[in-house]
Every structure is written in structure tokens, then in C-alpha cells.
Amino acid sequence: MTIKYFKTNTYYVYLILLFNVSLALTYTAFGQAGLDSLDREASIYTIYNVEVDETSRNVTTARDRALSKGQRQALEGLFRRIILISDREKLPEFSDAEVTEFISGFEINNERRSTVRYIASLVVHFNRTKITEVLSDYEIPYAETLGTAVSVLPVLEEAGALRLWEKDNKWREAWENYDVINNLVPINTPVPTLKNRMYISALQAKSGDQRSIKSFIGENRLNDLIIATATIKKDVNNDQLQLNIHLKRNNPNLEEDNMSKDISVSVPTHNEMGEINDKALFEAGVDAASDWVDDLWKSKVLVNYGVASKIRASGYLNEVSDWLIIQKQLAKVNLVRNINLKSITINNVDLEIEFAGDEEQLALSLAQQGLTLEQGEIDNKWAIGLTGFAQSTGRN
Fold first, then answer.
1. CA 144 to CA 302: how far, in whole Å?
2. Cβ neighbours of 374 (radius 10 Å)
3. Among 214, 219, 321, 329, which residue carries the largest CB count within 10 Å?
4. Which of residues 112, 137, 162 is at a domain's end?
């Protein structure tokens, strides 16, 4: 037996073992129980940083009230994350017992208490199956795919002056302090560096100066830039502060998909301390604007529970371990309901994917995990593959 022969046979033995392990992994990783694993739910069906603060006649009662309110607040946050703004009113007011049934567990952080007061921060995990079933009952589509990060340039127009990079731009400060961990689409706010100041000004941003905007996007390598121009108005008759916001999306890769939106929010002129309520006004504005950003993404990836499709796809394997990476990345895609491995060789894998939504939504969701899904123009056959991102993260 030559060394070459020995190595070749060893490789085939390894392939056979890998094939058998892969089959076992397929049924465990993609069975219904596997799809509801904590790893898959963590990115979508967990709500973080739920702050609770309750006072009552004793700390035990305060704690019970705080946990009950916090869990309800988390449920509202989850629905805010995965369904459209227009569909929220379709949901009923759930009882405390019903809210509890949706929850698979929760964690308590930063707990503080006195004899009558209870303060904590909660992380609440939800049961994916029960959530999607209730949405199906009310015929509400939902999104389970995290979006690509976008950047927001907050321009404040006040008393005839425009602010963007200035320190006293409270509108930008509200965006910088906004906790986006529970949003479907990650949002970041560019920092006021000298370079950024040189590339775009408040006036250029507000007026939609495309030369400056494109230069700013290119220099910062942004996927999506949303210019949020806010104007404060006082409603003296109703003792309200009003924030009028114009949102303009700028995407260098989707010129035809550029969109704009005008929204308005209002709060009482003064807070409980008698101070001007501008902080609450800006926070309400960020909430409303980020809702719109999330909805832009949701409209592309919304699915209906119980509606499933199947496609057959083949993939080329540079290494046998590529199949394990494909499995690992597929397991992160919530649209994928099941995988059937049809065949595997040294260089090729053939599989059937059962999924919710349509092919375009599936391809978009796979792309978020570093997988490509393309249909041949001639034979209409589907091909699945790995990007460099998936290969680097999958082997870690």
C-alpha cells in the first residue's frame, strides 16, 4: 500500500464518517425542536434591558408588580420588533396569565431593593412557537431576520439654525444614547470627527446634496444612510411640544429604493419636575423614526406562520468541512424550517430546504449569514454557497 493510496482511503473514510455525522446533525439541528433552540431564539425572541421600578407597601409586592409589568413591557417590545406598525392594533390586550404563557424564561440584573421599592433590569426570553401561533391566529405576518446596519444623520432645525455635529445638538445626542439592542435593524450614529465634518454639513444633509451625501457614504463605507431632519414646534393651546421629522433614505446600491417619510410626535411641554420636556420629545422621535427604519426591512422579510415552501439546492465544497459550515449558518436562519440532505460527495452537496416565505426572502436571509442562494438562468436550478464571511465565522 503506497502512502498516496493510504491517504486517499483515509480521506474517503473521513468523508463517510462525516456523511453519517452530518445526517445525524441534520435531523437534530433542523427538527422542530432544534429550530426552537435557545441559539436561534436569542437573536430575535429575547428582549434585553427591560428597566423596572416599582414602589408598594412592601418590597415583595413591589417585586411582583415590577416583574409582571416588565414581562408585559418585554412582550410589547417583541411585537414591536417583529410585526409592522400597522399590525399592532390587531393584537388584543393579553391578560397577565397569557403574557406568562408566552415567556420561556427571564433573567434579573442590577437588582436593588428597599423595604418598599424594587428596581431591576430584565432579560426576557419568549417561546417562539407560542408567539408565532398567536400571530397566525390573528393573521399577522412577522419578521424573523435581523437587518443590515444603517446609519442615521440627525439634523436639528431650531430657531432658524441648523445643527448636526455641534455639541448642543440634543437630537443627535438622543440617537447616540438610544438603546438599539431590541431593534430588528441595528442603527448607528456617525461621530462628529473632523473628517465627517469636512465631508458633510447640516445644510448639505438637510438639502439632500447628493455629491456630499455620496462622498460621506463612500468614505465611511456605509450600507444605508438615513438623514433625519427634526424641527421643534410649540403647541401653546394644548401645552404640547411637537417634533416634526423628515426621514430620507440614501442607499448607494438601491437608487430606486430610496424613500422618505414625514412623522410627528408630541409630549407635554413640561415634565413632572416642571422642566422643559425636550429630552422625552427627542426620545419619542427616535422611537418613531427607528420604527420606520425597522418597517422598511420588515416589508422585505415578512412571512406567514404555517406557509412553507421547498427548493432543491446544490453546493460546491472546497473542503468537506464546508458542509458543516453550511449547516451551522443555515441553523441561524429562522426562515428555514427543515433541511433534508439528499447526497454528499467530496466536492458537492445536494439538499432540500423547507422554509417560510418566498425564494427572494430566503436568499436575503441567507445572505445575512454569509450564504449565497442563486438560481441558474438556463437550467433554473438553485445553487447554495459560502462567502468569505461564512467561512471565517463558521470555522471559529
1. 8
2. 12
3. 329
4. 137
Total domains in the chain come to 3
What cell was used for 316? 460546491
Exposure string of 63-77, with b = 16+ CB inside 10 Å and e = fewer, is beebbebbbbbbbbb
Domain coverage including residue 71: 45-137
Q: What are phi and psi of 231, to 5 degrees?
A: -130, 130
Residues 125 and 211 in one domain: no
Q: What is the dihedral of CA 212, 216, 218, 224, to 10 degrees?
A: -110
Domain identity same for 269 and 171: yes
Q: Pick the closest to residue 306 from 356, 365, 375, 250 (CA basis).
A: 356
Decide: helix, strand or coil at residue 336.
strand
DSSP string, 367-379: HTTTEEEEE-TTT
Q: Are the beta carbons of 323 and 211 closer than 8 angstroms?
A: no
For 297-319, the pLDDT digits (tens) are 998 888 876 667 888 999 898 88
Would you say residue 36 has pLDDT above 60? no
Question: In terms of C-beta density within 10 A (0-12 exposed, 13-18 middle, 19 or more buried), how is residue 290 classed?
Answer: buried
pLDDT over threshold 80, residue 39: no
Residue 185 pLDDT > 80 = yes
| Cα–Cα distance for residue pair 82/90, rounded to 1 Å | 14
Same-domain check for residues 293 and 309: no
Classify residue 144: in a domain, yes or no: no
Q: Closest by alpha carbon to 386, among 377, 288, 142, 395?
A: 395
Do 242 and 315 lie in one domain? The reply is no
Q: What is this structure's pTM?
A: 0.74
Helix, strand, coil shares of the chain as percentages rounded to 5? 40, 30, 30
- Residue 41 — φ and ψ, nearest 5°? -80, -25
